[in-house]
Amino acid sequence: MDEVRSSLAESFSLAHGGLVDRLGARLGRLARTPAQVMRRALFATVVTWVPLLILSQVEDLAFGTAVTVTFLRDFAVNARFLVALPILILAEPTIDRWWRTLVLEFPRSGLISHAELGSFEAVIERITRLRDRLLPDAALLVAALAPSFLIKTELLMTGASNWHVLGGELSLAGWWFDLVSTPFFRFLLLRWVWRMCLWTLFMWRVSRIKLHLAPAHTDLAAGLGFLSEGQRAFDSIVFAGGVVVAGQVVNAIAYEGATLSSVQFIMLAYALLAMTFLVAPLLVVAPVLWKVKKKACLEFGALVTQHDQLFDAKWIRGQRSPEDVILGNADASSLADLGAAFTVVKQMRIVPIDKPTLISLTVAAGLPMVPVVLFATPANELIGAVLKMLA
Question: What distances in angstroms separate CA 159 from CA 68, 129, 155, 174, 260, one per listed residue?
């Protein structure tokens, strides 16, 4: 069988295009080398975090005792702009390469035949056109800016005096935080949400093409098991979101009198939300896999029954020639092979995600919460817990 190739699949990208790329092209800043991506991450930190430090220092709010939460003691803000924000930028090339690899796997693995290549490329073109529209990016900008005019306090920070406000009004750093730093971060985060929506739409449309699925495939997903591996690339995005939530929770514990038990729902809710959001692109193929599994169970069941009846008649009831011996006979081998194939069909998953991927995403979501637990747990309780584990 000739390998199916697609130039559109080879150039597939969800990270390119849109308003940001057009502006980057005009400014001559569109290169995506590792060094260039690193410079963009550094630039983002300089724009969002450095002015906050300078402006808060101008009004003696960077450190000291003027307010309860000085800028340098604000866990949430520093975690957001020094850790999470660079990750959102640095993760882009890796995840985009993974998306391209997954798209290329459809024709390469034979899931897409020459007859269906046109339909497959039509899906790619449609998603690319949607990616390149200016309206989505414009809507993301509005969504990133709007909360700054509606909400004047940080989540979980409602009572403690902080560097955002000076004399009842927004401080200089507070203005920059509301109008520049936070919208910048929100926009980057919302762009990842938009890209995930595009990827989910791509998966939904591709699943409606006549894919050459193999229900007896050993990946237990009819040949779509490779999609699960691709979701692990989002560990970094899940971790970045966890860092933001963890920072907010530590602020609430340190300055608002919250306890670990009172904020555990927020941490669990984030983990569940992140998992659901990342599994969503794989959920859209579930109806197709369900139909394939249902049909295959009937077909393989009938085939196994037919084969077993013939085997029984020949080897159990003695309807064979005297020269036939069962040892090394192909009949016994085919019986075992067919039985194994039917077992694979029965175990086939209708959502192509495996346990290692779920564990990986769970660890990425939970890892930023470890410092929260350590921060909120008294030292004597931590030592006691460690000693119990070692006992």
Answer: 10, 47, 11, 16, 18
**Domain co-membership, 39 together with 157:** yes
Same domain, 274 and 297: no
**Residues of the chain whose pLDDT is less than 50?**
155-156, 325-330
**The pLDDT of residue 243:** 93
CA distances from 319 to 3, 303, 313 (A): 46, 20, 6
pLDDT of residue 184: 94
Q: Give the pLDDT score at 278.
A: 82
Residue 263 shares a structural domain with residue 300: no
Query: Which helix (H) or strand (E) element contains residue 363?
Result: helix 355-366
CA dihedral 204, 210, 211, 215 (to 10 degrees): 100
Domain count, the chain: 2
The per-residue pLDDT for range 356-384, each reduced to its tens digit, is 888 888 888 889 988 888 887 776 665 66
CB atoms within 10 A of CB 84: 23
Per-residue confidence (pLDDT) for residue 232, from 0 to 100: 83
List, for residues 88-140, the tens digit of each pLDDT value. Answer: 999 999 999 999 999 999 999 889 989 999 999 999 999 999 999 889 989 99
User: How far is Cα 66 from Cα 117, in angstroms, rounded to an integer?
Assistant: 66
> DSSP string covering 74-126, please?
-HHHHHIIIIIHHHHHHTHHHHHHHHHHHHHHHHHTTSS-TTTHHHHHHHHHH
DSSP letter string, 61-76: -SSSSSSSB-GGG-HH
pLDDT of residue 82: 95
pLDDT of residue 47: 95
What is the model's pLDDT at position 99? 92
Tokens 């924000």, located at residue: 85
The rounded Cα 366 to chain-centroid distance in angstroms is 14
Give yes or no: residues 271 and 304 share one domain: no
117 close to 3: Cβ distance less than 8 angstroms: no
Instruction: For residue 374, tell me if it sits in a domain.
Output: no
Domain around 29? 7-213+235-281
Identify the H or E element spanning 248.
Answer: helix 235-255
The SS3 assignment for 364 reads helix
Within a domain: 227: no
Residue 205 shares a structural domain with residue 298: no
Residues in CB range of 208: below 8 A, 6 or more apart = 288
Would 218 be classed as within a structural domain? no
